[in-house]
Amino acid sequence: MPRIIYFDCFSGISGSMLIGSLLDLGMKGIDAGFLKNELKKLNLKDYKLIIKKTEKHSIAGTYFDVHTHETGHHHNLGHTHTRNLSELNKIIGKSRLSKKIKSTAKKIFLNLAKAEAKVHNTTLNKIHFHEVGAIDAIIDITGAVILLDRIGLLESVYCSQLNLGQLSFSKSMQGIVPVPGPATMELLKTKNLQMFSSGIKTELTTPTGAAIISTLAKGCFTLPYINAEKIGYGAGTKNLAIPNLLRAIIGEAESAQLKQNKAEDNILVIETNIDDMNPQLYGYLMQKLFENNALDVYLQNITMKKHRPAQKLSVIAHKNDLDTITKTIFGESTTFGIRIAEYSRLILDRKFTAVKTKFGKIRVKLGYLNNELQTATPEYEDCKKAALKSKVPLKNIIEAAKAALLN
What we know:
Shape: globular
Number of domains: 3
Radius of gyration: 22 Å
């Protein structure tokens, strides 16, 4: 059975509640000290993390919040600094975090920007983030990715139906807006996540929380058959008629149910042949495609008519991302046409484990078919970090990780 993390969103979800629930799991090496050290890699200044144990309706949980000079407090809109998507990407890109973490955090902000652009009938370049543009949101989103990656379940996230809160109105930097927020609704609709309201007249699912879970969740359904290993609770700020908590559950789940409830089973292969483009542009094009949610991008050497050498660009993506993928290809390449084909795909159940080697702990991704191990791949970033630290060839680290797994 695959090992997953399941977020039970009976009182909605926010970025700070998600981080609180992960810290509350009590897993070795995943604590406030680790998170603070990792967040320092963002090179952000003048902020303070608030992490403490608390209770909601006599249920213990962990409260997480960020205080900065920009906001004074997480919910103080009057002094919120605005940033556009380019500025946010620059902050994340210049950080010392791993490539995987940076790429995932950028995807979350990109999806949020898409939702905001649609709601306000404008373009991505003109979107300026308000509540979610301050340092606290950068920390919420990046911190959530950091912790999920550390746990080894960044690619195994599932969630329940999301409690949004009852229809009401709230004041934002853009004026009076309905609750649930327009961007929140757009994010959940785009990713086919189920939502409901329990009648609580306040915002329970925030745009930041919606952006994180809609980007990372592989499926949305009621609690699956799961052998729970760890349970953590992240506390919200407000005291409500219901426990204002987000519950995170780690355990092995029935793979059949996960497959049955997968949000997306089909993928698109988008291709074009290019014979007149400066080779220096391909690297940038591929980077932009990954930033726009491409699952994979690759090039093949081909020969076209009149024996012209060329490259076939292939992009694998989900249907929901077709528009941005095609716009990126047309905008960043010299092609005049694109081919699109739809395929069904089968995916191995994935599980992550950590093995001990003489070079330190290395995470390994395991692939299962019908509960039988088919393949094992050491995580590249872990191996690279160990190789640089130990000053030995990268291949030695990979071989050591594989050997440790067999033992």
